[in-house]
Amino acid sequence: MIALYLVAAVAVFAVARALIEKNTGRKLPYVNVMNFAVAGALVLLLDHPLSLVAAAAYFVGSTLEANAIASTYAGGVKR
Amino acid sequence: MILALEVTFGLIALAGAVSAALIRDSYGKLISLGILVGGIVPFIVDRGYLDVAIAVSLIAPIATIFVLMAVRRDEA
Fold it and tell me: Where are the transmembrane segments (chain A) (predicted)?
Protein backbone atom coordinates (compact mmCIF):
# COMPACT_ATOMS: atom_id res chain seq x y z
CA MET A 1 0.00 0.00 0.00
CA ILE A 2 2.87 2.36 0.74
CA ALA A 3 4.18 1.84 -2.80
CA LEU A 4 0.95 3.28 -4.19
CA TYR A 5 1.26 6.43 -2.08
CA LEU A 6 4.91 6.78 -3.09
CA VAL A 7 4.09 6.49 -6.79
CA ALA A 8 1.23 8.99 -6.47
CA ALA A 9 3.54 11.45 -4.71
CA VAL A 10 6.09 11.09 -7.52
CA ALA A 11 3.32 11.76 -10.06
CA VAL A 12 2.20 14.92 -8.26
CA PHE A 13 5.77 16.19 -7.95
CA ALA A 14 6.41 15.57 -11.66
CA VAL A 15 3.19 17.36 -12.66
CA ALA A 16 4.06 20.35 -10.48
CA ARG A 17 7.54 20.61 -11.96
CA ALA A 18 6.21 20.19 -15.52
CA LEU A 19 3.68 22.98 -15.02
CA ILE A 20 6.10 25.37 -13.31
CA GLU A 21 8.73 24.96 -16.01
CA LYS A 22 8.56 27.62 -18.76
CA ASN A 23 10.80 25.99 -21.38
CA THR A 24 8.99 23.30 -23.42
CA GLY A 25 12.12 21.19 -23.82
CA ARG A 26 12.47 20.99 -20.05
CA LYS A 27 8.78 20.10 -19.56
CA LEU A 28 9.11 16.86 -21.53
CA PRO A 29 11.29 14.84 -19.08
CA TYR A 30 8.91 15.64 -16.22
CA VAL A 31 5.93 14.53 -18.31
CA ASN A 32 7.78 11.27 -18.91
CA VAL A 33 8.28 10.85 -15.16
CA MET A 34 4.55 11.39 -14.62
CA ASN A 35 3.72 8.80 -17.30
CA PHE A 36 5.93 6.18 -15.65
CA ALA A 37 4.45 6.93 -12.22
CA VAL A 38 0.88 6.61 -13.53
CA ALA A 39 1.77 3.34 -15.28
CA GLY A 40 3.08 2.02 -11.95
CA ALA A 41 -0.04 3.19 -10.11
CA LEU A 42 -2.30 1.38 -12.61
CA VAL A 43 -0.70 -1.96 -11.73
CA LEU A 44 -0.96 -1.36 -7.99
CA LEU A 45 -4.56 -0.03 -7.97
CA LEU A 46 -6.52 -3.17 -8.85
CA ASP A 47 -5.76 -6.85 -8.22
CA HIS A 48 -6.79 -8.24 -11.59
CA PRO A 49 -4.77 -9.99 -14.31
CA LEU A 50 -5.97 -7.61 -17.02
CA SER A 51 -4.70 -4.56 -15.11
CA LEU A 52 -1.19 -5.54 -16.21
CA VAL A 53 -2.33 -5.31 -19.84
CA ALA A 54 -3.97 -1.95 -19.15
CA ALA A 55 -0.76 -0.61 -17.61
CA ALA A 56 1.28 -1.92 -20.54
CA ALA A 57 -1.12 -0.27 -22.99
CA TYR A 58 -0.90 3.03 -21.10
CA PHE A 59 2.89 2.75 -21.05
CA VAL A 60 3.10 2.15 -24.80
CA GLY A 61 0.58 4.89 -25.60
CA SER A 62 2.08 7.57 -23.38
CA THR A 63 5.62 6.82 -24.57
CA LEU A 64 4.44 7.08 -28.18
CA GLU A 65 2.74 10.40 -27.43
CA ALA A 66 5.75 11.90 -25.63
CA ASN A 67 8.11 10.78 -28.37
CA ALA A 68 5.85 12.23 -31.07
CA ILE A 69 5.72 15.61 -29.29
CA ALA A 70 9.47 15.64 -28.68
CA SER A 71 10.29 14.65 -32.25
CA THR A 72 8.05 17.33 -33.71
CA TYR A 73 9.38 19.92 -31.25
CA ALA A 74 12.96 19.05 -32.29
CA GLY A 75 12.16 19.69 -35.95
CA GLY A 76 10.72 16.40 -37.16
CA VAL A 77 11.59 14.58 -40.36
CA LYS A 78 12.78 16.92 -43.09
CA ARG A 79 10.70 16.52 -46.22
CA MET B 1 -10.13 3.97 -4.18
CA ILE B 2 -8.60 5.53 -1.11
CA LEU B 3 -9.65 9.15 -0.61
CA ALA B 4 -6.09 10.50 -0.63
CA LEU B 5 -5.42 8.85 -3.98
CA GLU B 6 -8.68 10.14 -5.42
CA VAL B 7 -7.70 13.67 -4.40
CA THR B 8 -4.21 13.17 -5.83
CA PHE B 9 -5.25 11.95 -9.26
CA GLY B 10 -8.13 14.41 -9.36
CA LEU B 11 -5.69 17.23 -8.73
CA ILE B 12 -3.47 15.94 -11.54
CA ALA B 13 -6.41 15.86 -13.96
CA LEU B 14 -7.59 19.34 -12.89
CA ALA B 15 -4.07 20.77 -13.21
CA GLY B 16 -3.82 19.35 -16.72
CA ALA B 17 -7.20 20.79 -17.70
CA VAL B 18 -6.51 24.27 -16.28
CA SER B 19 -3.05 24.48 -17.82
CA ALA B 20 -4.36 23.25 -21.18
CA ALA B 21 -6.82 26.12 -21.07
CA LEU B 22 -4.30 28.77 -19.99
CA ILE B 23 -1.01 27.91 -21.75
CA ARG B 24 -0.60 29.71 -25.09
CA ASP B 25 2.26 27.65 -26.57
CA SER B 26 0.82 24.84 -28.72
CA TYR B 27 3.37 22.23 -27.58
CA GLY B 28 2.65 23.15 -23.96
CA LYS B 29 -1.04 22.63 -24.65
CA LEU B 30 -0.42 19.12 -25.98
CA ILE B 31 1.77 18.28 -22.98
CA SER B 32 -1.02 19.46 -20.67
CA LEU B 33 -3.44 17.23 -22.58
CA GLY B 34 -1.15 14.28 -21.84
CA ILE B 35 -1.16 15.21 -18.14
CA LEU B 36 -4.99 15.38 -18.24
CA VAL B 37 -5.24 11.84 -19.68
CA GLY B 38 -2.72 10.61 -17.10
CA GLY B 39 -4.96 11.90 -14.34
CA ILE B 40 -8.13 10.34 -15.75
CA VAL B 41 -6.97 6.78 -16.59
CA PRO B 42 -6.47 5.70 -12.90
CA PHE B 43 -10.16 6.44 -12.21
CA ILE B 44 -11.23 4.23 -15.13
CA VAL B 45 -8.96 1.42 -13.91
CA ASP B 46 -10.14 1.74 -10.31
CA ARG B 47 -13.76 1.07 -11.30
CA GLY B 48 -12.67 -2.09 -13.08
CA TYR B 49 -13.33 -0.99 -16.66
CA LEU B 50 -9.99 -2.32 -17.82
CA ASP B 51 -11.01 -2.75 -21.46
CA VAL B 52 -12.11 0.88 -21.56
CA ALA B 53 -8.78 1.88 -20.01
CA ILE B 54 -6.86 -0.07 -22.66
CA ALA B 55 -8.88 1.55 -25.45
CA VAL B 56 -8.49 5.07 -24.01
CA SER B 57 -4.77 4.76 -23.44
CA LEU B 58 -4.24 3.57 -27.03
CA ILE B 59 -6.59 6.09 -28.72
CA ALA B 60 -5.54 9.26 -26.84
CA PRO B 61 -1.96 9.32 -28.27
CA ILE B 62 -3.35 8.87 -31.80
CA ALA B 63 -5.51 11.96 -31.26
CA THR B 64 -2.43 13.86 -30.06
CA ILE B 65 -0.50 12.81 -33.18
CA PHE B 66 -3.31 14.12 -35.40
CA VAL B 67 -3.24 17.46 -33.59
CA LEU B 68 0.56 17.53 -33.97
CA MET B 69 0.17 17.35 -37.75
CA ALA B 70 -2.00 20.50 -37.61
CA VAL B 71 0.56 22.22 -35.32
CA ARG B 72 3.38 21.47 -37.72
CA ARG B 73 1.45 22.65 -40.77
CA ASP B 74 0.64 25.87 -38.90
CA GLU B 75 4.33 26.45 -38.19
CA ALA B 76 5.64 25.73 -41.69
Answer: 28-46
